[in-house]
Amino acid sequence: MTFDIKQQVTDRIIAAIENGATKKGQLWVNAGGSAMPMNYRTKRPYNGVNVLLLWLEAEARGIERQEWMTYKQANEIGGQVRKGAKGCPIVYFKMLEKDAPTEDGSAETKRIPMARSFTVFNVADIDGLPAAEELPGGFEPHSTAEHIMRASGAEIIETGTKAFYQPATDAVHLPDRARFANQENFYHVAVHELTHWTGGEKRLNRDFSKRFGDEAYAFEELVAELGSAFMLSRIGLTSSELQYHASYIEGWLKVLKGDKSAIFTAASRASAAYQYLLDSAGLNAAEDADYAQAA
Question: Where is the N-terminal domain (predicted)?
């Protein structure tokens, strides 16, 4: 490889945050029509950092459909990528086995994730495809969000004016619904706080304090916001807004600029939280066969 995949991805995410840091509302959910990117050939959603990369690509190019596939996949179903079409590089991880010496002189085999890049093309740039198919959906968005909240098993208290997850009581606190400008904003905040809840010791046990030190809190906020973005796109709630505290954005940029693997970790942990909530609700979040997240 002639370039550093992790650094390239990180630089793109940093640029997106810096360019959107002073704008009102979402950094991620409003990109590319808000649909969860999916592979047109396999009908499976992409995962982890690839969701962010495809959202950003769609936003930059004004693409409305979030359906993508490789050149080879297009050919397999009779499609042809147009000459000169621009593809979007995304990432997959291949697990490599490597023998490493131990203290007693013996050797043990370790599995090491190795990042690789490949390119996908949007269906808008592929000729010869069958008639356009609708993206997976059909949910009643608000009822689905309510089901996810109930099925999580979390204690959710709706009162007052603040939204937060309280580890000491293992409870999610949300403001009264009447305080929100619209229902979408309420569910955005609710899923954001539920994503925090999934990180509890009894569940996914997320703890970033050793790795990120003083920025661990801001990093957890990034995970919660990505997890919420993934979920809202999955269930069709795409017009919500969440205001970011300036310190969060500053913390995110500090971490990402100092650690090129950080965005992969954030996206991976967010995907795990998103999957946890969907599994609890009996919904499906199948991974794309072309991509396996590791961090």
Answer: 4-121
How far apart, in Å, are the Cα atoms of 9 and each of 14, 16, 132, 227, 287?
A: 9, 11, 30, 19, 20
Helices 246-258/5-20 angle, 10° precision: 160
**What per-residue string of b and e applies to 109-130 under the rule 16 or more CB within 10 Å gives b?**
eeeeeebeeeebbbbbbbeebe
Q: Check: CB of residue 6 under 8 Å from CB of residue 261.
A: yes
Q: Helices 262-281 and 216-235 sit at what angle, rounded to 10 degrees? A: 50
HSE of 155 in the Cβ direction (CA atoms, 13 Å)? 8
Number of H helices, E strands in the chain: 9, 9
At residue 4, what is the residue type?
D
Residue with the two structure tokens 């969701």: 51
Report the amino acid identity of residue 85: A
Of the listed ranges 115-119, 280-284, 285-289, the one predicted with least confidence: 285-289
Strands 155-158 and 38-39: unpaired
**Residue linked to tokens 């050939």:** 41
pTM for the whole thing? 0.69
How far is 28 from 18, CA to CA, in rounded Å? 13
